[in-house]
């Protein structure tokens, strides 16, 4: 009987923190802008430029703002929050089903069951004058040559 209890205890500990192990407690935060080439600053004290860019290792439980600036365009600020991720919830459920109460507690406290929302942050910047920026100038097409007889 003691052997069975010992095996069950070891099995429970072996799956402890499944979501923490498989997903980690941080994630990369992606910022994409149209047009590209903007600077993005977060209330976490991080920044990236030029967009598109990635801010690595952001806590999955973070709530923060992102301010995006580019010359000639309105400055835009966005709120980023977190929610329970499908994969994180599955990892937590696996802990509970297998009896890993310790693992479930670790996952709940590490933030591994969470994900940043929205991620990626996709933004279309607005020109300062409120008009649509001109379309990019395309190179003129090469004139077609005349057939030589």
Provide structural commentary:
It is a single chain. Helix 3 packs antiparallel against helix 4 (101-110). The strands form two sheets. Strands 3-2-5-6-7 form a five-stranded antiparallel sheet. Strands 4-1-8 form a three-stranded mixed sheet, with no helix packed on it. It starts with a helix and ends in a 25-residue tail after the last strand. By secondary structure, it is α+β, with helices and mostly antiparallel strands. The model is unreliable at 5-17 (pLDDT under 50). It is elongated, with a radius of gyration of 25 Å. Helix content is 28%, strand content 30%. It contains four helices and eight strands.
Order of H and E elements = HHEEEEEEHHEE
What fraction of residues sit in β-strands? 25-35%
**Helix percent band:** 25-40%
Q: Please outline the major beta sheet.
A: 5 strands, antiparallel
Mean pLDDT: 76
Number of helices: 4
List unreliable stretches of 5+ residues. 5-17
CA-based shape:
elongated
Spatial strand sequence of the major β-sheet: 3-2-5-6-7
> Terminal Cα separation, in Å?
98 Å
Strand tally, please? Answer: 8
**Radius of gyration (Å):** 25 Å
Structural class: alpha+beta
């Amino acid at each position: 009987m003691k052997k069975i209890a010992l095996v069950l205890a070891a099995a429970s500990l072996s799956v402890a923190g499944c979501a923490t192990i498989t997903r980690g407690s941080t994630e990369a935060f992606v910022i994409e802008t149209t047009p590209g080439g903007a600077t993005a600053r977060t209330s976490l004290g991080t920044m990236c430029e030029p967009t598109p860019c990635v801010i690595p290792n952001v806590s999955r439980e973070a709530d923060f703002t992102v301010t995006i600036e580019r010359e000639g365009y309105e400055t835009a600020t966005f709120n980023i929050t977190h929610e329970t991720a499908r994969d994180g919830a599955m990892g937590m459920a696996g802990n509970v089903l297998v009896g890993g109460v310790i693992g479930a507690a670790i996952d709940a406290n590490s933030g591994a069951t969470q994900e940043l929302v929205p991620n990626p942050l996709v933004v279309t910047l607005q020109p300062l004058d409120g008009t649509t920026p001109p379309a990019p100038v395309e190179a003129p097409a090469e004139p077609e040559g005349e057939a030589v007889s």
